[in-house]
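Any chance you could type out a protein's amino acid sequence plus the matching backbone structure tokens because I've never seen that pairing?

——
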Amino acid sequence: MIDLYSAPTPNGHKVSIALEELALPYTLHTLDLHQNQQKEDWFLAINPNGRIPAIVDRAEDNFAVFESGAILVYLAEKTGQLMPLDAKGRSQVMQWLMFQMGGIGPMMGQANVFYRYFPEKIQPAIDRYQGESRRLFRVLDGRLRDHEFLAGDYSIADIANWAWVRTHKWSGVSIEELPHLKRWIDAIRARPAVEKGLQMPPSPRDLTSASDEEAARFSAAARTMLETGQSRNN
């Protein structure tokens, strides 16, 4: 049995989707990020960085794993699924996983901060992060032109990138004129395990189609959380 400590974010859903795809039994523990539960001592003993997600594998002497990409690799290697066993195949998956970890996630995350959460609209910053996100989307679209999935068969690389890219509207980034990316987004969204993973836990707002009023309320709550977290870290 695995304990999953998570919240309704792209990084959190990466792991819950993988657990559902792998049909691994797990118990979900939802952390209230607005209350900074991820900074409490009991959780810092699991993840010293104080971020979600994290897992504890009870079957492996309560082995703890943090960082969403590292968790995906651990689960894939534990089960022998969602990642090839040969060196070249594994490398392809790892390349596209690192693409998400080092590019898609950070750029979309910063786009969210400046486009949605920051109290002042700093247009050069918004343009910078939305533009870089769009560039990365074009890289994905080019890869998907001749490949059904990013690294051969469906893998943790697809799960990691999809969990972020699906929220492109929230980041203010269009996927118009990226037909291969659209096809891939829709194909993965149709998977039953993906649908179930998105409900573990469900987001209080659908970031793919939130109304202006809903978006404003969600952004205000997120802004308060960011400000509270910064004050507690100073």
